[in-house]
Amino acid sequence: AKRAGRGQYACFDPSLREQVAERIGMESALRHAIHHDELQLYYQPIVSAATGRIESVEALLRWHHPERGLIMPDAFIPLAEETGLIVPLGRWVIEHACRQAALWQRITGSAGPALQVSINLSARQIAQPRLVDEVRAILQSMPGDDTRLHFGFEVTETAMMHDPQVSAETLSQLRRLGAHLSLDDFGTGYSSMAYLKHLPFDTLKIDRTFTRGVAEDGCDRSIIRSMLALADGLGLDVIAEGVETRAQQQALLALGVQRMQGFLFARPQSAAVIERMLDDSLKA
Ligand code: C2E
Ligand code: CA
Ligand code: CA
Ligand code: CA
Predict the structure, then answer these.
(1) What is the rounded CA–CA span in Å between residue 160 and residue 122?
(2) How far apart are CA 255 and CA 221, in angstroms?
(3) SS3 47
(4) What residues flank ion ligand 4 with Cβ within 5 A?
């Protein structure tokens, strides 16, 4: 928009005007979606690469738009983030993921260690001190609060950049509530190893840009090797993301990576499909 004088703005670019209209439409549609059952969480298994056992799942948001069909998170999370809609949206995600975790915990129950559900948090959510109270309230509203809920959060370095101090404090409090903490997309942000030691992470998730070349690219292998040394030194677990081929799996295993996530093992699935996979792996 260009200033046209006397506080008036003129839009000269019709495509820009379309973009603005599109954004506003999208924003109100998303606001509507939260309250009208258009959102769904998919879950992608994280497996022990040696045994194939499902150890945890990552909750990934999907939007079933009444006209446009399925919309993937990359197409609406950034807008939700900019507009602040991520706060109610994120609350919806945390609530539903925790409820699902509690249900699955009852199914696996005595049959083995509980399945952990990991939830993505964006910058705006972590920068919001009320997040901790919201999570506490959600946990208190869970049925069967005698058993500790197995859940976790995933945060990127970039998301913490905005306010490292507040982020660190929020993360520590979430951990005290029993949340497992993962550093997501590791290696893609402004990697600041220095503050890593001050943050209460349990797990490093190696980004799929490094997994991609691990079977044929010596550089990727070197980078992963140094990430593993770092994780080891700091006492962190490691998950390799985006594992798509047997060759990648083998190369990662040879480097000593135990836990993997990717299309090779399973795509993100509805809760019902995950449940069937769990049943099968319990019977196996
Ligand atoms: P992310 O946290 O890095 O999640 C992993 C993404 O990689 C998912 O995309 C997943 O489907 C995809 N993926 C998994 N395995 C493979 C593989 O083998 N190959 C390839 N090419 N991709 C794989 P998805 O579901 O489209 O989510 C994209 C991003 O949207 C997520 O990246 C996360 O940053 C964000 N997101 C998703 N759900 C939520 C949510 O509930 N809250 C927030 N704040 N962000 C979310
Ligand atoms: Ca993630
Ligand atoms: Ca990731
Ligand atoms: Ca990502």
Answers:
(1) 9
(2) 8
(3) strand
(4) 185
The identity of residue 179, as a single letter, is: A
CA distance 184 to 205: 5
* Helix, strand or coil, per DSSP, at residue 152: strand
* 3-state DSSP assignment of residue 118: strand
Check if the beta carbon of residue 77 is closer than 8 Å to that of residue 115.
no
pTM over 0.95: no
Q: Which helix (H) or strand (E) holds 204?
A: strand 203-206
| Residues 115/97, Cβ–Cβ less than 8 Å | no
Longest Cα separation, the chain: 74
When the pLDDT of each residue in the chain is averaged and rounded to a whole number, the result is 90
Interface predicted TM-score (ipTM) over 0.95? yes
Tens digits of per-residue pLDDT, 6-41? 555 555 677 888 888 888 888 999 999 999 999 999
Q: Identify the residues whose C-beta falls under 6 Å from ligand 1.
A: 44, 59-61, 72-74, 77, 90, 93, 120-122, 154, 184-185, 208, 242-244, 261-263, 268
What distance in angstroms lies between residue 58's CA and the mean position of ligand 3's atoms? 10
Tokens coding 8? 């008036």
